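Hi there, hope your week has been kind to you so far. Would you mind checking whether the tokens look sensible for this chain? I owe you a coffee for this, so here goes:
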Amino acid sequence: MARIALLPEGSVSHEAAVYLVGEENCFMHHKLISDVFLSTVRGDSDYSVIPIENTIEGSVNLHMDWIVHEIDLPFQAEWVYPSIQNVIGRRDEVQGDWSRVCKVMSHPVAMAQCMQFIRANLPHAELEHVNSTSEAVHRVKENPGQGWVAIGTALGARTHGLDVLAPQVTDHQNNFTRFVLIGKEPIALPQSSSSKTTILVTLPEDYPGALHQVLSAFAWRRINLSRIESRPTKRRLGNYYFYIDIEMAMDTVLLPAALEEIEAIGCQVRILGSYPSYTFNHAVTE
């Protein structure tokens, strides 16, 4: 049984973790994402569940920066899971009248995913950001009679004994979040039909056209890149690394050769992991 650190019980991270590894593992919930990371760094947990990208909001830069600058733990798996948000509160308190609601609480990313509903039904309400959707639901539970509601998951509502006042209020139905499982050792998971490798590339400062050369190393080998993103190295202004997702495992001939070619022109290459990739099966929740 693996010890898995993640955000609070009832969060999207919790739903996503249950989907990937099942409920038989030991889930260790933390209020802050920094505590999730540090739990695995210290050895208090075997793995951390980290959301790193959302269909609507893009990259979760804080979490990516932790992976790059603060820790050195490889990716062991990635999976995509739907972020289905709901308005959660007490049915007998709101009584179907949104004017009774004076505050909406949620994680800022989840809140941003539901702004069409909020503008249409709750334009008068105060919006308050908290550390997770689960914390928002918990605070609503602890403050009855205040006219507070939360944006969160159905699992969060069940966990805290509250009602789903409005289901599936996200602006877009294709709202998915990409998660990675990080840890020191591989984990036993079902067979996956696809694999990925994630690398960080820092370009040499005195090599004009270095990025073109990097991309060419993949292109002529017909290696597909599913994501390339620049992020500051935090060493000096204008200095960036490139975060690249490659749709190929390291246990091939082509990919190691491409990385050797990139290093030969003076690039620094750090492999964040080579791992199985899973896509959400809609039948799981139907």
